[in-house]
């Protein structure tokens, strides 16, 4: 990959000039090249007779390129053409421009273009070292032939934007200080770096002369998105097709459900294709063959590049105590998921040996997610991670403020595999469901239990946002009254989303548990894909321009049985209900499904034949749960159009209710 990156630089011909009097031509970097001067209406070269570091000093300074590294002759950067303007140049280093140095006079001399002079200036070349990939790592800058590091206090988001851009690595996703990628060697850059953010090369960023107090303990690191280019494949013209993104050198498609109208607008703008007309379903332009990038693009709609909307992993500022990071991934929320810890430039997982609820409490506290839920399985399971397993035998008292205060084996020392990755569910973890899949009573999960959402003030826009979060379609019926189950908490009331709310959890409501919900008046809604949504105009004027969250979740229901807790299992995908094939299906899978449906324990995994055979598409197959997963989509599964499952083999089940 390194060689590809080099190739990119080499093939780019860079011309650098200021105010039109001196420029560098033919170098691979902005501050290297053949020196050309402008005189009498045309550009001409400089002869290398008498060419030395004094002259190079003047030119480097004149171009804002720092200090000279080499003065170089014999047309090292290729032969120019036209006039040879200067010969026998003599500078004393205090000139502000090459034109003020001594010479034999404009156009006077006996040189050929094979003697054209060039320079290499200090150039401030950035690189990222010791990250998990080419676009992440400790920031190092080459200056005067020496690689050095950068103090975290001297460096901010705008500076990172320029570095990521220069490295062809997209945009910054996270800044990490305090030697998160290990300590470097050599000098530490301590002067404040003041990029505007739009510079094409780091060398053009101004710096202040006031140094900060720094050591290698403060070495800054960057994780760039890695996404650079976007293209549309297999459409009828260059402005339609399947979205593919380049990640370093590899092209791949974007995870289904990550693309909404806002993201599409950004892609269209990035490709100079005007405004987005419609987003069409999967398979419309054929399936991609490469990777599927699972990153979340949370577009506002005003970004100029899709990668600018890449979900920031952390909002931590680079100057405070974020020494090391932890996160929970795979649940669709920040407060539940597989535990991952950041060390030596990579996210890794934690092994479940001797993991208990006291350890989970510390994680929840550190993430400001409340307390660990002990009525959920401990540890919870959110599927296997990848990459290193960083911690094992973690042992907290439960009162620590951070996981780093707890004892454990040393980093990377373990006897585990990824089947033992720890998951955590905290009390602030929130989730929503409808009692019958894509219709029914609105219920939310909070503080460890499911409860009702009451109907007061709920409108259609709010209901539509719920449908979109559940991948159940873009629109909803007007909410109607329904009576919830009496023993259940009424969790939310007066829930009313505003136009700019992207997820339900941003919408105002009464505090958790407070309500005016007489007779348990619960909101009931029905989701659907509005036909007119497919017309271009309604996309642009739709009042519900809420974005759908990128998630792999799907809605489930049981049909053909008595009540909602037994029957043939169906899954909602690509705007259609489909059956589930029973390859590998067993009682552990049924447990997870019954729990998700709020139907208690599973009684049988091979339900009554009387539930009937399904018709139409089979969406899901090879579900392999352990039984302790929080959601069915945390289990390995294949979600696809399965044409090889006969309708006799569909999953049927009965839950205890
Ligand atoms: C350097 O050269 C410039 C222009 O020829 C002259 O004005 C200046 O006095 C010189 N400085 C020194 C230190 O020789
Ligand atoms: C990267 O880290 C490894 C150990 O993790 C170390 O051996 C190597 O020297 C480091 N490389 C650089 C350029 O810092
Ligand atoms: C960067 O933005 C500033 C104003 O914000 C502008 O003056 C400058 O010309 C821009 N530079 C580039 C290279 O676009
Ligand atoms: C283009 O799409 C069609 C189906 O619409 C598919 O058969 C074909 O393989 C696709 N080609 C590419 C290059 O993706
Ligand atoms: C887009 O708009 C939001 C809010 O209006 C603003 O905070 C954000 O910086 C904008 N993003 C870009 C890339 O202009
Ligand atoms: C944490 O709890 C342990 C024993 O349970 C106690 O010894 C220790 O002092 C406590 N630490 C703090 C900071 O409260
Ligand atoms: C956790 O560690 C930090 C820094 O090492 C220390 O300041 C803090 O007192 C510790 N807290 C507990 C509860 O151990
Ligand atoms: C969450 O549950 C705990 C224990 O069950 C309880 O003490 C706490 O008050 C609850 N919080 C809310 C907001 O209901
Ligand atoms: C599933 O695939 C079959 C065969 O390719 C096709 O006829 C059918 O329309 C597909 N169904 C859906 C819902 O994509």
Task: Specify the helix fraction band.
Answer: 10-25%
CATH superfamily of the largest domain: SRCR-like domain
SS element count, helices? 8
Radius of gyration from the alpha-carbon trace, in angstroms = 31 Å
Number of strands: 38
- Unreliable runs, pLDDT <50, ≥5 residues? 1-14, 311-320, 532-550
Q: Find the structural class using helix and strand composition.
A: alpha+beta
What value does the average pLDDT take?
80
Task: Estimate nothing, just give the exact number of structural domains.
Answer: 6
**Shape type:** elongated
- The CATH class of the largest domain, by name, is Alpha Beta
Strand content: 25-35%
Ligand inventory reads:
2-acetamido-2-deoxy-beta-D-glucopyranose
Q: From the structure provided, what is the oligomeric state, counting identical versus distinct chains?
A: single chain
Distance between the termini: 55 Å
CATH architecture name of the largest domain? Roll
Examine the coordinates and then state which fold CATH places here, giving the name of the CATH topology of the largest domain: Mac-2 Binding Protein
Quick one: biggest sheet? Answer: 7 strands, mixed
InterPro entries: SRCR, SRCR-like_dom_sf
GO cellular component, one term: membrane
Keywords: Disulfide bond, Glycoprotein, Receptor, Repeat, Signal
Protein name: Scavenger receptor cysteine-rich type 1 protein M130-like
